[in-house]
Specification:
Shape: globular
Number of strands: 8
Strand content: 35-45%
Order of helices and strands: EEHHEEEHEHEEH
Largest sheet: 8 strands, mixed
Structural class: alpha+beta
Helix content: 25-40%
Oligomer: single chain
Length: 173
């Protein structure tokens, strides 16, 4: 099964990436505001993600002007019913687009794919990301200490998750 998606939220059109989106994705990854918080892929790696049935590479566009403002990369383990948000970047920061896009991901994972667990990891210095994930009532599972070696040294990764029953419980409140 090849994952493909297109969803429109109040201000975003979120669609499956195509090869012509890869340059935007790489530019977004390398931007000084983002490069310390995400892993940077190559053209070939992103093309493989587009064509892989377990990965979902999405690009976020403004509904009004169709300008790309972010992207995400997810991996879905259908056997274990787990949705991993591997990369998530919004270039138009501080305007609530991140919250809108994450909520669309959660809805897709739990309501359309019937996933049991949604998870991601974040570096401790990504304060904006941590605030967003905690405000969405994601649970802090723990810290993978010095689990990634970057140009700036060994980095911890904080794991956050949400379970299906928590997602639906949050909708009711």
């Amino acid at each position: 099964m090849r994952l493909k998606k297109e969803v429109t939220t109040e201000r975003l059109r979120i669609i499956s990436a195509v090869e012509s989106d890869i340059n935007f994705i790489i530019e977004t990854e390398k931007h000084p505001d983002n490069k310390d918080f995400i892993w940077i892929g190559t053209y070939e790696e992103h093309l493989a993600e587009i064509n892989d049935g377990q990965h979902l590479l999405l690009v976020f566009y403004h509904v009004e002007d169709n300008i790309p403002i972010g992207y995400s990369l997810s991996k879905v383990d259908f056997k274990s019913e787990v949705f991993e948000l591997r990369r998530f970047v919004v270039t138009d920061k501080g305007k609530g687009y991140g919250r809108e896009a994450i909520n669309a991901h959660l809805k897709y994972a739990f309501e359309e794919l019937n996933i049991n667990r949604f998870w991601l990891d974040v570096y401790p210095d990504n304060v904006a990301g941590i605030k967003l994930y905690e405000s969405l009532k994601m649970k802090k599972d723990g810290v993978l200490r010095q689990s990634y070696k970057a140009d700036r040294g060994y980095l911890d990764q904080i794991v956050y998750s949400m379970l299906k029953n928590e997602y639906f419980s949050n909708l009711i409140q």
